[in-house]
Design brief:
The chain is α/β, with parallel strands linked by helices. Helices cover 46% and strands 16% of the residues. A hairpin with a 2-residue loop joins strand 2 and strand 3 (33-42).
Length: 229
């Protein structure tokens, strides 16, 4: 199964107030393995970057205005993500911005139900603990040395590793819990019946049996004699 871990950076906190996307980063995962394939683009937002956003990303409008707009960049982005499930931390924020941008150029919006929100997973798995990307990286001993500023591609790469760590934990929990379920429950859980195997019996040849007996005669104090005693 193909999944795409995605992150965006924006000029501010609300597209309803006119804020725009300035950066998109994506990381490809296939069958819960990071493939190394990525997508990254910087975007001309056609407006100033808020002071707070600049402090977080280090991206100014003077720097960004030389890049393509979202409308000119979205084709490659949509081609990269295809119909893959998206993995996003605080998905409503990114999906909200992306769908707003897509609506402005009359392109079909992304399906919010084809998304895994790692923030929701973290809050459920670790109640009472911080669920920020930094906190989750520290939980799984993922190096944050390069995260001096927020960057869409770097954050997507970090999130991909966090997501795989959490996926392993969820799988382990599922396996252990399934030991208390019936066969029918287990079949339903994996979506397919358990395979049936025909038992086969293998008997030693006469020569093999004789060699085995001769070997046993050579043992002076075999362990099964101690157990019987």
């Amino acid at each position: 199964m193909r999944e795409v871990v995605l992150d965006t950076e924006t000029t501010g906190l609300s597209f309803l107030n006119g804020d725009r996307i300035i950066e998109i980063g994506c990381v490809e995962i296939i069958d819960k393995r990071i493939t190394g394939e990525v997508f990254h683009v910087l975007i001309n937002p056609e407006r100033e970057v808020s002071e707070e956003a600049f402090k977080i990303t280090g991206l100014s409008y003077d720097f960004l205005k030389k890049f393509k707009t979202f409308g000119d960049s979205c084709g490659e982005f949509l081609e990269f993500i295809g119909n893959s499930r998206l993995v996003i931390h605080n998905a409503p924020f990114d999906i909200g911005f992306l769908n707003y941008e897509l609506s402005q150029i009359n392109v079909r919006e992304l399906d919010p139900y084809n998304v895994v929100d790692t923030l929701d997973i973290a809050k459920e798995k670790y109640p009472g603990f911080s669920s920020t990307l930094d906190a989750l990286c520290r939980r799984f001993s993922i190096d944050l040395a390069e995260r001096v500023k927020h960057g869409a591609l770097l954050d997507a790469q970090l999130l991909a590793r966090v997501y795989l760590h959490m996926s392993v934990e969820l799988l382990q929990k599922s396996i252990f819990e399934s030991s208390n379920k019936s066969k029918e429950d287990y079949d339903d859980h994996i979506g397919a019946p358990l395979p049936k195997f025909e038992l086969r019996e293998f008997f030693p040849s006469e020569e093999e049996a004789e060699l085995h007996e001769a070997f046993l005669e050579k043992l002076s104090n075999p362990i099964w004699k101690k157990l019987r005693a």
